[in-house]
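Page 47, continued from p. 46.
Same chain as before, 253 aa.
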Amino acid sequence: MIDVVYIVSNLSDSAVCRMEYSVKSFFKNNTRILVSDTSSDEATRAKIEKLDFDDYYLEKSVGLFNRSRAINNAYRYMVRTENFIVMDLDLIASPDFIKQSIRRFNGIYNVGNIIYLPKRVKNNNYKYLSRNYRRKKYLIGKIPRPPFRGPFYKSYYSGFFIVNRKRFEDVNGFDEEYAGWGAEDEDFSARITIRNRIKRYKMEVQCFHQWHPQAFTVDRNIEIGKEINRKRFMKMSRLYEQSQALVCEKGIR
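Result:
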């Protein structure tokens, strides 16, 4: 048994639909599906509650959505297993995803490969996708690049990761100083890989990423927040290079 965490906040109808396909891919897969929600409105919560999950935590916060805090909340209030997975809601896993992840897990922290599906794909059945879209061009095609290139460019992950509870606690979880979203992934990856001296941690476990339009926002506060996060990460990364500040101050404790 392993816990799988999804992070949500005011999802559109299409995003809820993608999440439903993702959750279904874990059926009969020896998992507990956990949903950490930050400030979703009643309409969104009603849609999410129709999905098949095992536990749900809602934080009624004010201000910008904080993805780091949502992940930390999942750990604080719901995660029970020794290792756990954080999964993007638009990924479709294989039937043996959990077995592969655990078998190839280094016991500390691993990320996986994502196959980005083209827009024309309508069939979200994993067997169909595996048969038709495992070719190399989909794996290395239009994959989003890390938004913040820096000394830890190779530590960037996208999509999902599996981490050990003790190792998660060792770095005090995700840094909640990163308001909104942006750079919190890179920051966590850098801290946990350096602290544990991981040289190679990427698994060959794969998931399919459902196509959706690139997310744009007209909220100036969010864009300002992303720029603040970028500057913070570039500043912190210089400390990480010297193995300093690897345990964040504002985390799960």
